[in-house]
Amino acid sequence: MIGLIGYGRFGKLTLKALTPDFEVVVYTRNRDKDDDIKKSGAKPCSLETACAGKIVILCVPISAMQATLKQICPLLKPDALVVDVCSVKVLPVQWMKALLPEQVSILATHPMFGPDSAAESLKNHKIVLCPERVEDQRYAKIKKWLEDKGLVTIESTPEKHDRQIAVSLALTHFIGRSLSEFGAGPLAIDTEGYKRLLHILEVVTNDTWQLFEDMNRYNPFAKEKRQDFLDAMKRVNTCLEDMACSQKD
Prior knowledge:
Blueprint: E1 2-5, H1 9-18, E2 24-27, H2 34-39, E3 43-44, H3 47-50, E4 55-58, H4 65-72, E5 81-84, H5 90-99, E6 105-111, E7 126-133, H6 136-148, E8 152-155, H7 158-182, H8 192-205, H9 209-217, H10 222-248
Parallel strand pairs: 1-2, 1-4, 2-3, 4-5, 5-6, 7-8
Antiparallel strand pairs: 6-7
Helix pairs in contact: 4-5, 7-8, 7-10
């Protein structure tokens, strides 16, 4: 039995992937979602029941991770495997190692897709795996299941993950949110490049503002990369201004 804690947009996608192969129980504080959980082939349950699973998957916001770990700590079985799906890895791994019992296994993951991009299929989407405290045989079995689903698995350390994701995710969302603030929208006279910018805007604004805040607040490298990008923009703008001044002269 797999226990799923949290049933937001990504929790729903996770459940869709799991129910064909596993018995899944779901804990969420929002009881209005019970019917939807049942329709997905799982059972709504208490936190205690979710934590009784051999595998417990945490689909909660990064900002709720520490509180959730403290809640589940006394409820987990000694042979349980706790899996997270946070978009940052350094801090969640630190929290799991500090707050969970030593005998509980830990597998940190970051699915590099979401409810929109993987709405039709998981095939060829990437998932990052950070096997922090898990037996080789158990890890190999999970990795094989993911790959059988068509996912591309990437093994990484938490630090290596966060350094790269500070650019590929946090910076992309920063650009998308900035385009939204700028007021970018469809134009009759456009280019393919501009259409790609609007696609970035559309994708990132489908995610919550909380996710945007969390991926920046809890990634130790996000601020540095964001500042590097802003400095680069300033240098390019300075070049244009200098060119305009030289032409006037």
